[in-house]
Amino acid sequence: MSQAAYEHNGQQVTAAQFYAIACDPKRSVAVEACAGAGKTWMLVSRMIRALLEDDSPQPHEILAITFTKKAAGEMRQRLQEWLAEFAFATPEKLEQELIIRGLSKEFLSRQNLDTKNGLQTAYSLPEQLQNLYQKTLSQGRGVQIKTFHGWFASLLRTAPLSVLEGLNLPANYTLLEDDKLATPSVWRRFFGTLLKDESAKNDFEELVAEYGKSQALKALDEALSKRVEFELADAKGLVDASVPHFSVHFAEFAGESSPYDWLATEATKQKWYGWARVLGGEKNKTPVKAAEVIISAFEKTSLEERFTDLRKVFFVAEEDRLTQHLTKFPAAQEAEIQLKLLCGAIAQHAAWQHQQRMARLTRLLINEFGNLKRQRGWVDMNDVERAALVMLSSSELSGWVQERLDARVKHLMIDEFQDTSPLQWQALYAWLSGYAGAGSKPPVVFIVGDPKQSIYRFRRAEPQVFIAAQKFVQDGLDGDLLSCDHTRRNAVQVVEAVNTVMLQAQDVKQYSDYRAHSTEIAVVGSVVRLPQIERSSQDKSKDKFADDSAEPVWRDSLTEPKEEVEEKIVTLECRQAAQFIQQLLQSGKKPKEIMVLARKRSRLSLMQTELQSLSIASQQPEKTNLSDTPEVQDIIALLDVLVSPTHDLSLARALKSPLFGLTDDDLVAIALAKKANSNEDKFRQNSWPNSWLSLLQNSELLRHEIQMLGAKLALWKSWIDNLPPHDALNAIFHDGDVLARYASAAPATRRESILANLNALLSAALDIDQARYLTPYAFVRAMKAGLSAANSDGESDMADVTQTVKSPMTSDDSAIRLLTIHGAKGLEADVVIILDTDAAPSAAATMRTLVDWPGETETPVSFVFLASESRPAPSASAAFELEKQARLREELNALYVAMTRAREQLVISSSQPRYANGDSWWQRMQDVAEPVNSVSTEPVNHLNPEPVEGSADAIELWVLPRIESTIKAENSSINMPVSIEFIAEDAIENVADTDESLESRLGQAMHRLLQWADLTQFDTVALEFNLSNQEVKQAAQMAQRVMAGEGTWAWDETIVGWQGNEIELTSQGKLLRLDRLVRRKDTGEWWVLDYKSESQPQNKPELIAQMRAYLAAVKAIYTGDTVKAAFLTATGKLVEVI
Known about the structure:
By secondary structure, the chain is an alpha/beta fold. 48% of the residues lie in helices and 12% in strands. Strands 2-1-10-3-9-8-4-5 form an 8-stranded mixed β-sheet, with helices on both faces. A hairpin with a 6-residue loop joins strand 22 (963-968) and strand 23 (975-980). Helix 10 (198-211) packs across helix 18, helix 15 (266-280) packs across helix 18 and helix 25 (565-586) crosses helix 26. The chain is globular, with a radius of gyration of 36 Å.
């Protein structure tokens, strides 16, 4: 394992020779290097060398490109750290750093000898290196380190208007970073266009009739995601040609309009009759029956039925081959050939029809999406790449572009080149190859990557591009090819395991071009496997695919959770892995040295739950959306129920969160109380009947502490109803001690990130859509969808869906990292645990596209709409086989990436799949992994590992003494306790200010009681409006007179068919809020009702004007209905406004 594998243009070289070429800034080089070889180290070292050349470029003339903002940030950070380190290094250290970057000692010494002749000395190079940090800082403009999209976007910003017009892009645009946020908005437009276009409508209806609505929409969504490839192929007529007509693909059917017509010819009929005579003479019953079916089939007039009968009797159900009982009869074998040909022609015809239909619908869908983007002023990343390709490949624009690029780019360096898409490469190729005809000097190019780590095909990455780029560097730029299979990361046994697994796959033709790796690391390391979680016989009996003849067992859903077999097995696997991690921590391993990998994030979430039960901190760095974090989801659930009071599940989540801390038993008690209270009048007459929120404010069946939450929630709801989202949320944060409660409940290692996320949520209320049009409802919708949009369904032109709301970036060295395989790329850890390694085989997918785009071609060479992978069209069979090979290679690439993250120990974990998969990761790795002694899978509560270094002390919440007072409700002998748990220091707009007049506060309190239609909420209004016991009684009496006076019918369910409180309307740009809007059952009249504490509001012109505005707004909505308006006064009068 000590022999390094370094090659230059196919010839083995030493490590020193390899790095001398790789870091030489005068050479164009393409480097293929294995995991852990130091690819980014080479790229940044090359930057350093370029800045030290005699004719060194300015820092901004070096362009480095990578694929993620995170990778670009890490590259930038490494460059800055090196320059800062070199600024204070000794001459000996500097000289050594130059030597390992390809400058030999002999070269430095020779420079020393020529000092008198004015040449640079060996001392001068280290001195330049030491001064490089100061030099780059003084020049102001640093090295350009960008993502592909970032660089292309910068090109687009300088594009002439003619380019934008040619691509139908707006001159003033907003960059749409994730088009998944915008695509939902196109469907309404698309369906509207279908209704106007009869032929398109027929296409869609036929698609739905053939495959169902869900599959039809899935096909169109897939097409929209591949719109760039579709448009490029369609422009050259390749889409229609990718699936030929059956009469073209099968010469035997030339001239036929339908493949079934072949069964109508006399020649075909006589052939089948001949086979029937032969089969009918057999002694076996099966061929005799087949002969009878042939005769009866050709007596039918329907050609489709004729084919169906023949296929059913000759072929197995799911495959186009003879049934086993007919294989030994020559006549059946001859019929099989003809029937297979017919089946192929029918399948080809169906595929051709699907291709043509989908092509027409896709053109329409893409056109509508383009119209949507132009209307909204959006440019997505596909547009950016297309524009870059046009600008870099156009003969008319090439001089203009190169003039600008030459002034800025003398060195082009690309990291992780295996992730490049064909479109990105074509843009680069067009730019770089343009220098050949111009006779000018191109930039020096350095690309580095590893095709074995190409795992982003879903993002259009194509491994063939790397091969095309290598060829261009060598032939087009007269450059060098380097390869390195020597890692500086993995321990000996880890590398041996990787070699064994990959070479075994290569031996059976599942992989190619893998070369055995060597390692620089002397540590032996280990590869181990945890015991596989097996399916017990009991689990198998519960399997939905197993025999379900056993008597069903009923369960109480309130007290016994539903248990799925798959969930149980997955949970046991995660529990076992979590307890293994606990053992590692107790043995002295640091959390930051452990990484857990899985294919899916759902598995990581279960793993996080199991770790949390052991009080082990963990984090999922890929969960960058603020709405993905549990603490933010808790607050959103709270806001959701305050906005929509009937959302009981949201309230249940909020009640169980650290906000209130209720237990499962408490939630069960509420559910049972709801059932018991469902028929009570006061419960049904509430504004939110049959809801938990109503129950908390009415039910005496709940314990006192739970009842008191109703007052708190009612107060918070009043803020949500009357304040902007940020102000209401800020008030809730203060009143509920939200940050303190979460700090107290959070593990010390996660406290900082949790509080950062909660504060970020508060900021998001101001950031989303600039808070100009944001309502609480829209805020909840936007956050639940994870979008920074005021309206997440995309129906509002005001919506800004250009980016998601991100959570603050925090790094926690005292937490276990939980990552997907894709998210772990570029990372490493001492111990890596891979979950879910024995997954069942993937089922055949439906409604996919097959795109063949070789790296060297300008556009795709074929584009196929594939309805089902289980039965591809005959013309697409070869392409689909290539696709399956590419998927298998990517699957092995993902395994390679996962295994090579481990520095010292690789741990594999699995649960037994429902169906065996001989090619699973577990099957490939189990022979190279040593078994681990049994690890418990029993649930364990609060088994704390050894304290993690740097953890903070627990936070204890201080609770002020409860202040009790009593207020007697009118006409009631019950004394109602008032709990004042918190008095805010910072008054907010909706909370009564002591400077307000008593009359004003009494009027507001009356409104609040009428809004709730509940005159017993004395404690809430007393706190909200700063009223004494007597004053609260006075407000309640006013409200009671309103409800019992001339307008009492407005609360009578036998009279009122529809009712609503605090109705918001927008009229002539102004927001109007109606106290109550009802519709009478008997007359159908709408009544706008406005509560007034004064006795004669009709005498105030401004109030009359306000009511008339309400009246006009409602009439504008219900144009054909009678609408009336009236004041309801505190004296019980109903005063109609004409």
